[in-house]
Amino acid sequence: MSLSDEELERYARHIVLREVGGVGQKKLKAAKIAVIGAGGIGSVVVPALTGAGVGGLTIIDSDTVELSNLHRQPLFKESDAGQPKAELAAAFARNLNRFVDVRPVSERIAADNAGALLAGHGLVIDGSDNFATRLAVSDACVGLSIPLVSAAAVQFQGQVGLFRSRPCYRCFVGDAFDADDCDTCAELGVLGALSGTVGSFAALLAINAIVGIGGNQAGKVHLFDGVKLDWRTITIPADPNCKACGSGQG
């Protein structure tokens, strides 16, 4: 896979980085990533990946824009209220970088369709706002052997982790959150800038994983406290009884 003269100019600030170079930029161009959710986290992830030159981007979100989204979702404007987020996010990405192949999916992802929607991707970034969706996405990624960057932000707390099948996200949170009625930021609230912080970190983690920067981060979850303004990292052990990746599967 080669880079055109225009791409070489566009990505020049990446290419001069010793850790990226032309080889790393070609890896980004070859990458095909699915982004779950074009909300607070996705609104930062989509521009970051598009600007970075990720070759293929699928944006999956069944929601429409609401005015209450706008304090944390800079992809959208007031006049977009009522319009589908996936379509608007895809239009933004196309306008930003014509070299990125963008596909919007205005469909709710769940256990019954996650495998079909995610198949063929090299990495998934999940910025959805409920545990049922996150676990459905995680289980599908385990089944398809696709690396997953899972990111969440609520109130003043953020978390981002990379999972490569085992341990998986279900090992982290367990089975108690499979129900679809768990609290979301709509009920609990979220500081707008926190979503941007978490989204940027998720995009950085994904890009590093694709290019091969910083070693293997799989199984680590990075927790951010938006009040104390500090990060801490925990390592997730694999659950031998996990029904997705352990002996309890199936």
SSE topology:
Blueprint: H1 5-10, H2 12-15, H3 21-30, E1 32-36, H4 42-52, E2 56-60, H5 85-96, E3 101-105, H6 114-118, E4 123-126, H7 131-144, E5 148-154, E6 157-163, H8 169-173, H9 185-188, H10 192-211, E7 220-225, E8 230-235
Parallel strand pairs: 1-2, 1-4, 2-3, 4-5
Antiparallel strand pairs: 5-6, 6-7, 7-8
Helix pairs in contact: 4-5, 4-10
Q: How many structural units, i.e. domains?
A: 1
**Known CATH architecture:** 3-Layer(aba) Sandwich
Q: Quick one: biggest sheet?
A: 8 strands, mixed
How many helices in DSSP terms? 10
On the 0 to 100 scale, the average pLDDT is 94
How much is the radius of gyration in Å? 17 Å
Could you characterize the architecture of this molecule?
This protein has about 250 residues and is α/β, with parallel strands linked by helices. The protein has a single domain (about 30-235), classed as NAD(P)-binding Rossmann-like Domain (Rossmann fold), CATH 3.40.50. Helix content is about 35%, strand content about 20%. The chain is built from 10 helices and 8 strands. Strands 3-2-1-4-5-6-7-8 form an 8-stranded mixed beta sheet, with helices on both faces. The termini are far apart. The mean pLDDT is about 95.
Summarize the structure.
The chain is an alpha/beta fold. The chain contains 10 helices and 8 strands. It is globular and about 50 Å long.
Jot down its keywords:
250 residues, Rossmann fold
